[in-house]
Amino acid sequence: MTGILLSLACLIAALFAWKGAAAIVLLVAGWLACDRRRAAYLAPAGLIAAVAVVAAARSQPPPSTASLAWVDEADAIRGRVVSGPILTGRVQQFVLDVEQRHWQGVWSDAAGAICVAVRPYPPLTIGDQAWVGGPIERVEDQAEAIQGWLTSRDCGGSMFAYATTIEERGSGWLRELSLLRRRMTVALQQAAPGDAGVLLSGFVTGDDRALTAARRDAFLRTSTVHLTAVSGANLALLVAVIAGTGSMFGVGKRFAWQALVVVGVWVYALLVGLEPPAFRAAIVASVAMFAVRVGRRPDFVTLVLLAGAAEVLLRPQDVWSLSFRLSLVSSLALSMVMANLPEAVGRGWGATALLATATAQLATLPLLLPISGTISLVAIPVNLAIGPLAEAAFPLATAASLAGVVWRPLGEAMAMPARLLADGVIRVVDLGAVAPWGLQPVGAPDLLSLTALAGGVAAAILWACADVRNWTRRAPDDFRTLPPRLRAAGFGVALGVAIGVALRVAG
To answer: Where are the alpha helices (DSSP H) in 315-445?
Structure first.
């Protein structure tokens, strides 16, 4: 329980800075003042307050949606590639950390990041010093969805460049990983032309930008865009494959093989750009492997929260990332509900898959509804149908992409079964997208509606969580007459209302 409270204190202070830390310190002081056993809780209470203070000191404000001051007075920029590049078919997209700008024939110093799209040749990689030419568009002039994409990358403007020149090639292992990611993406898209290849590259590297507009809309309408977002599911499958291979050859319990699992997880997380979901999942996988090594059963509820707290301490800006919030909430909900699965639904595969899909969709609803204002009524059946296909396609596509980097014909041959699976996913998504009753516009909820929704979601998840029910059995005597599930649900309502208010206040 101490780990959970520490994590929550860290996350709250990261969101609300010193106001959140002050509230936590006051709650801790009030708790100690009212509890007669304060001496026993003094050390953990002090640690919780200290973590909140450190998180507040490390916190950062949300990304600004304002454009850089100089973007209207630049027709070319020079700087270093710090993120990407990602191929989207006809263009490559990357973030350029600007060092100089050109205006009216003169180069002058400048600072800030610009999101750039330019033709795919010459191909750039992380660390390259480059010059790009073209007008810069202000963030405020973009559509709301594009504004969110730009601010999530700290870009103060966007540019569709007409030309680029590499002035100096970068170096280092990050560049080599970036090159490997590009080659894996190209190998899959060559082995499976069209949206099937793009979907496979999305499974493996998260690079799905080359999807056609119609296909992307189909994934949006069916709430299946998470398939191509590298997250904890990808790393869990990777761990399962490597650990299963070790067990097959009788070396799974050896330290060297378990170390290989951890190294493989972090290499993959770095390969996909160390995005917030991958970073958090890599921490969870590493700690879980260590726990197994020392003979302990990992408590994934605590691990998920501690990993999220560690991430926002190391990278405070991640707390404002929607991908971080979605992955944290869905992973936490799945860990809570699936931890006592035999009691809830038995051991049937169908019931397990249905519960997991419904839990993930329900848990992320309070985060997505204020943004999209829509609910997909086909999300659960479509996700349920394509889940096994996607899980089978990921390891096959990963192996095919690596083989394609070494020898293209081998990669194409190995990609054939993965391509069939990707085609199946696309057919199911297309079928769900054309359902006339699938996507229902409901509008963005107000504060009251959002808190009610968050409360209901939290109540449902805690109602299904046996660990929380066991914890509520230690409630005061006045509440012990209530059934455990009802106590857990009541606690969930209170927690959900607090989350709903926090979501609205924090943005």
So the answer is: 322-338, 341-345, 349-372, 379-406, 408-433
Q: How many domains does the chain have?
A: 4
What stretch of H or E contains 57? helix 38-58
Q: Both 23 and 150 in a single domain?
A: no
Range of the domain at 467: 359-371+445-507
Q: What is the token pair recorded at 495?
A: 């927690």
CA distance 72 to 53: 40
Q: Say if 466 falls within a structural domain.
A: yes
In sign, the C-alpha dihedral spanning 132, 134, 135, 136 is: negative
**Is 396 within a domain?**
yes
Tens-digit pLDDT profile for residues 307-348:
999 999 999 988 888 888 888 888 888 888 776 554 444 455
Three-state SS for 105-152 is CEEEEEEEEEEEEECCCCCCCCCCEEEEECCEECHHHCCHHHHHHHHH
Query: Which of 9-18, 102-111, 289-298 has the highest average model confidence (pLDDT)?
Result: 102-111
161: pLDDT strictly greater than 80: yes
pLDDT in tens, 29-66: 887 887 677 667 788 888 888 999 999 999 988 877 78
CA atoms within 13 A on the CB side of 153: 24
- Contacts with 323 (C-beta within 8 Å, 6 or more apart), sequence order: 229, 231, 275, 276, 277
Cα end-to-end distance, the chain, whole Å = 28
pTM: 0.84
Q: Which residues pair with 78 in a beta bridge?
A: 100, 131
